[in-house]
Design brief:
Elements lengths: L2 H13 L4 H6 L5 H8 L4 E4 L2 E3 L9 H9 L4 E2 L1 H7 L10 E6 L12 E6 L1 H5 L2 E6 L2 E6 L1 H10 L1 H4 L1 H12 L10 H10 L3 H11 L1
Parallel strand pairs: 4-5
Antiparallel strand pairs: 1-2, 3-4, 6-7
């Protein structure tokens, strides 16, 4: 095997998912991807995405695929709820947040659903997780719930309430997130008045 192919396979191990543009930044030729796929040393897992064959994938691999192509996007709303195990729903699209004025990304697969966030909302309450070797930005639990109340017309008020009840549990010991954190993100999202009666009833 050539040193070029070795370098590409090492990069695939490090990145989890490989894009042709990743090769360019390392001075590696794109044509080698096709050769490696033909040899069975790489697998094409989606348009413009390659990985080592037989790699282990998680149930959240679609989030990794979207994030690899659009690293600035933030996984949010129903997809974030699912990641945090706060909903019984299985969204058929990957919900991502992008800045208000950003151009909406085009992606044939996986299907995506775009929500537009203000710049401050793109930064607050966002954590980075590694999924299938890929860094993925996902809203944290408190922000996800506040966002669901803000976008309740898109996700459904019942979904937001289900998640809120789940994180608050049966008492202070069961809580997955603090009331203060929920209030903080409710204020940032300007939905404190909407969430107040539910928080007061459940707290």
């Amino acid at each position: 095997m050539s040193s070029t192919q070795d370098a590409i396979l090492d990069l695939a191990r490090a990145e989890g998912l490989l894009r042709p543009v990743d090769l360019e930044s390392h001075g590696l030729p794109r044509v080698s991807l096709t050769r490696l796929v033909r040899q069975g040393r790489l697998a094409r897992v989606g348009r413009g995405l390659y990985a080592l064959p037989g790699r282990e994938v998680s149930e959240h691999t679609a989030l990794a695929e979207v994030s690899r192509k659009h690293p600035r996007a933030v996984v949010c709303l129903l997809s974030a709820l699912r990641f945090h195990e706060l909903t019984t729903q299985v969204p058929h699209e990957v919900w991502i947040a992008i800045p208000n004025k950003a151009r909406a990304p085009r992606l044939e697969y996986p299907p995506i659903r775009v929500a537009r966030f203000a710049d401050a909302a793109m930064r607050a309450g966002v954590d980075e997780h590694r999924i299938d070797g890929v860094p993925v930005r996902i809203t944290n639990v408190a922000k996800t719930i506040a966002d669901c109340f803000k976008y309740r017309n898109k996700v459904g008020l019942d979904v937001a309430l289900e998640a809120l009840k789940e994180v608050l549990g049966q008492g202070a010991r069961d809580r997955r997130v603090s009331i203060d954190a929920l209030w903080h993100h409710a204020r940032l999202d300007r939905v404190a008045n909407v969430m107040r009666p539910y928080l007061e009833a459940l707290a």
